[in-house]
């Protein structure tokens, strides 16, 4: 009974370490920074902009708008900031958790991307894009007040997308891309072994009072690592409605992943470490969601272009996380996310033949439906963003673009409640208000030959 309860309780303690967390610049755990040009226009040109090969990450038909051969590469630096304010935490028995450390969990991340295309003949184009569509990097102090809910979360995904475009008419491009997605995750949180012990005593019919009083005083530590490959597809169309107006639509399928790896337990206290279970293997299912982009690009004058984009993401596919362990135990965490829409508008202004100025505004819904489903791993909230940037073209073949985005996010309340029956039994209560913001810098180069 002792070992079984310890293992099951620890399983519950790490079960909600969902393989996700907010990257702040986009809702959920989405990463949209595949091009400095799209970032500088607030993503308003994602579906219909089709300016260089990197746009195939948003709409695979974009490569049909580019004659000849081209390579494009870029990097984005994301500086995410979120901090829990007015925080309070306690064990399921009501014993307060305290900490002298910060509740700041934001991390910076560097996101590279690469794309290349070649025109096979008058009707077909072939391309390859390598980019990160989803990801995160969050880290709290190991003894922060919400340590039993989360300490560190790292998720990296890489998509390899070979793309074929068909120039159906002079005005219509149709494209399909295959997506091979690799995901790698590392997640950790503290484990309140005193509370687990008290729960074990209560489950056996004893009085847990003396053990429960030590809540927060005998921490273990759990770290989960895992990776997997998954496969999906993307479809796109680009239609030149008039000489000035272009319409774009694209769809990216969901990808199912089963991350397999190890669960490692440790503690700086030898007595606590002796009571922890042995390291074991575990698996967790993760679905990266489907999304749809709709866009319009209009060349209003010789110098001024206007654009708009709407993006729908099927976050409702992430309704529950199930973690299965080698010893036969498993646990589930309810997420209950909603589908979301993001809307953006932007403009380009040709200052000179060599300089193109860019700007945009956007709004993005959060998939988290309420405070009870907001977690330290995903302190997500509705957000707005403003962007600026410029492209320098020293020659007709070469373009160099820099873009900047500032994200303004609404405050997000968190209200994680613990009961003896739910998944927070070993993690406790946690409440407060998250303040969230982010800055994103992007640089890209494209060369046509």
Molecular structure report:
The chain is 9% helix and 53% strand. The chain is mainly beta. The protein has a single domain (2-448), classed as Outer membrane protein transport protein (OMPP1/FadL/TodX) (Porin), CATH 2.40.160. Strands 1-3-4-6-7-8-9-12-13-16-17-18-19-21 form a 14-stranded antiparallel barrel. The model is unreliable at 15-22 (pLDDT under 50).
Please give the domain count.
Answer: 1
CATH domain class name:
Mainly Beta
What is the SS-derived class?
A: mainly beta
Largest sheet: 14 strands, antiparallel, barrel
**Separation of the first and last Cα atoms:** 70 Å
Q: Spatial order of the strands in the main sheet?
A: 1-3-4-6-7-8-9-12-13-16-17-18-19-21
The level of helicity is: under 10%
CATH superfamily: Outer membrane protein transport protein (OMPP1/FadL/TodX)
Return Rg in Å: 24 Å
Q: Care to count the β-strands?
A: 21
The quaternary organization reads as single chain
**Order of H and E elements:** HHEEEEEEEHHEEEHEEEEEEEEEEE
**Low-pLDDT stretches:** 15-22
CATH fold descriptor: Porin
The overall pLDDT, averaged over residues, is 89
Percent of residues in beta strands? over 45%
- The CATH architecture would be Beta Barrel
């Amino acid at each position: 009974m002792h070992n079984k309860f310890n293992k099951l309780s620890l399983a519950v303690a790490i079960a909600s370490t969902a393989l996700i967390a907010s990257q702040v610049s986009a809702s959920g755990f989405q990463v949209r920074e595949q091009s400095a040009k799209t970032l500088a226009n607030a993503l308003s040109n994602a579906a219909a902009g089709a300016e260089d090969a990197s746009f195939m990450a948003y709409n695979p038909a974009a490569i049909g708008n580019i004659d000849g051969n081209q390579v494009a590469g870029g990097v984005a630096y994301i500086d995410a900031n979120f901090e829990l304010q007015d925080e309070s935490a306690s064990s399921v028995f009501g014993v307060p958790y305290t900490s002298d450390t910060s509740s700041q969990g934001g991390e910076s991340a560097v996101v590279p991307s690469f794309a290349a295309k070649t025109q096979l003949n008058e009707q077909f184009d072939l391309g390859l894009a390598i980019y990160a569509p989803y990801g995160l990097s969050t880290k709290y102090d190991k003894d922060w007040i919400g340590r039993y809910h989360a300490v560190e979360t790292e998720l990296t995904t890489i998509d390899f997308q070979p793309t074929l475009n068909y120039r159906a008419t002079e005005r219509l491009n149709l494209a399909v891309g295959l997506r091979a997605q690799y995901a790698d995750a590392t997640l950790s949180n503290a484990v309140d072994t005193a509370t687990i012990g008290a729960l074990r005593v209560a489950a056996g019919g004893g009085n847990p009072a003396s053990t429960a009083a030590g809540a927060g005083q005998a921490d273990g530590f759990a770290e989960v690592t895992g990776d997997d490959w998954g496969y999906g597809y993307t479809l796109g169309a680009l239609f030149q409605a008039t000489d000035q107006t272009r319409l774009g639509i694209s769809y990216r399928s969901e990808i199912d992943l089963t991350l397999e790896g190890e669960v490692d337990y440790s503690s700086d206290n030898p007595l606590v470490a002796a009571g922890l279970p042995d390291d074991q293997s575990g698996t967790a299912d993760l679905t990266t969601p489907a999304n749809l982009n709709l866009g319009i690009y209009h060349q209003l004058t010789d110098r001024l272009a206007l654009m708009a984009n709407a993006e729908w993401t099927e976050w409702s596919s992430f309704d529950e996380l199930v973690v299965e362990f080698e010893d036969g135990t498993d646990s589930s965490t309810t997420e209950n996310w909603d589908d979301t829409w993001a809307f953006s508008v932007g403009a380009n202004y040709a200052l000179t033949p060599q300089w193109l100025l860019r700007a945009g505004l956007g709004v993005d819904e959060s998939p988290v439906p309420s405070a009870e489903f907001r977690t330290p791993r995903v302190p997500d909230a509705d957000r707005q963003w403003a962007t600026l940037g410029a492209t320098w073209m020293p020659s007709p073949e070469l373009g160099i673009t820099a873009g900047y985005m500032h994200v303004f996010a609404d405050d997000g309340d968190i209200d994680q409640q613990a009961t003896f029956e739910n998944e927070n039994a070993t993690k406790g209560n946690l409440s407060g208000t998250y303040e969230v913001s982010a800055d994103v810098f992007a640089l890209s180069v494209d060369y046509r030959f």
